[in-house]
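tool=predict chain=A
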Amino acid sequence: MGWARAVRWYLRELTGEGEYDRYCERRRRHRPLAPVPTPREYQALRSRHREEHPQSRCC
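tool=predict ok
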């Protein structure tokens, strides 16, 4: 059953769900009274942040 857990972890990391979960944990720890954004709101925040803070990439 360990392989199923590994596949689930891999797919969650691939789709960004794991990152959202980590963000929610940090948010609750540092700002416990602030509302936690929904996954859709989180993706909008990430997109806005990427547009406002572009990083140069070689490829």
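The two ends are 38 Å apart (CA to CA). DSSP finds three helices and no strands in the chain.
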